[in-house]
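Minutes, project check-in
Item: structure for the 396-residue chain
Input as provided by the requester:
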Amino acid sequence: MIRYFLSFSFLILIYFIYGFALSQKDLTLVPLVLKKENPANFYDYRGVLNVQSSRGRGFSDPKEIIAEARKAGIDFLIFTDDLKEAGPNLSGYQGPLLVLDEVETSYLDMRLIYLNPQRKDLRVQSNLFFTDLVLQNPPASDDLLFLADPLRPNPSWNGDFPTGVHGLEIINPKRMAENVWRQSKLSVFLSFLIYPFNPQIAFARLFLDPTDEINLWDRINSQRKMIGFAGSNANAKAIPLANTLVKFPSYQKSFEIFSNHVLLESELTGHSQNDASKILQAFQRGQFYFSFDLVGDPKGFECYLQQNKNYFPGAQVHWNKGTRIRATLPAEPQFFYEIVVFKNGDRVFTTNEKNLDYLVKGPGNYRVIVRSILPLPFPDGKKWVTWIYVNPFYVK
C-alpha cells in the first residue's frame, strides 16, 4: 500500500514540475502591446461570428456573453441564435462593444447563418424565405447567407454547391476538436492536463489546419466568388463536474482563440445601425481576414492588391502588368514563419520576410496566409500553425 502511495505521490510531483515548466513557456508570435494601432490607411475591427446563447443552442444568457466578450477585448459580437419567434433584439452598442443580433436556420442538412446589411427584422422570416435565398443564382445582393460547418454531416459536395450561399465557415473550433478526438483521444486528454498551467499550449497543440474546408473553398472560388470566415461556434457547453456545471471553454476563451478582422476605410462612429451596416457590408464584400489570435494579435497586419490604388481583400479587378499583392506583418514573429501566396489553390510564392511584395502574373484568384512553426513542449515538438488567412483577391 505504501509503495502505491509513494508511486502516486511521485507522479503528482512530476505532473506539477512539468506544469510549472509549461507555465513559463510563451508561444506568442509577436510582442504584446497594450494598445495596438490601426495601419495608416484603414481601420481594423476585430469580432466574432456564430455565437449561440441560451435563446438557442448556447448555455449562457446573452447579457453574460456580452460581458465576457467585453473582457475578451473584441470590437463586435454577432449572435446567431435560431430564433423561431420574435423577441427582444439585442442589436446595438453595449459600452464599446457593438452587438449584432442575426439568425441561424436550417435547410436540409445545412446550417445557414443569415446576415442582413439592410438591418431588416430577421427573426420572423419563414422557412420558404430561406429556401428561396439558397436557390438564388446569382446570390442575393441585399442579403448575406453563410454556410456554417460546411462539411457537416460530411457531405462531399461533388454536385452543385448551393448557388445562393455567399460564404463558408472555414474555421470551426468544435469541428476541429472533434477531428483531433478521432485521431488521438490521448492527445485531447493531455491538453486537459496542460490547460490549468498554460491554456495557450493546451489549445495550440490541438490546432488542425482545416484542409478539407480550404480545398472546398478553393474549388468553389474557381467557379465564383466565395467568402471565407472564422466561426466561433461558441456555446460554452456545460460539463458536469462534482455536482456543478463547468462551461468549457468559456465564451471569453472562445472569443480569444479565433476572430475575424474587418477592414474599413472609415472608423466606426458609435451610431449602432450605421456601424452594423458597415460591418456586414464588409463581410458581404469579403473585406476582412481571419486569424488564430491565441498565438498573437495580428492587428496592424496589412494585405492589399495594388494597381492605380490599393484594394482590400475580396476585391474584383482586371489584371494589368503592374498588379501586385503586398502584405506587411505587425511585427517580426519570434519563431520561423512564412507568408504564402496561393493562386487558384496552388502555392505560387513564399517569403520569410516581414514584407511581402508579389507581382501578379496573370488572372486568377489569389489568397494569402501567414503561418509559423511553434516549438511545442514535450511530447509534441515543432508544429506548423496557420496564423492569418486572407480572403481572396479576384483578378479577371
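Outcome recorded: The chain has two domains: 34-172+210-298, 301-396.
No further action items on this chain.
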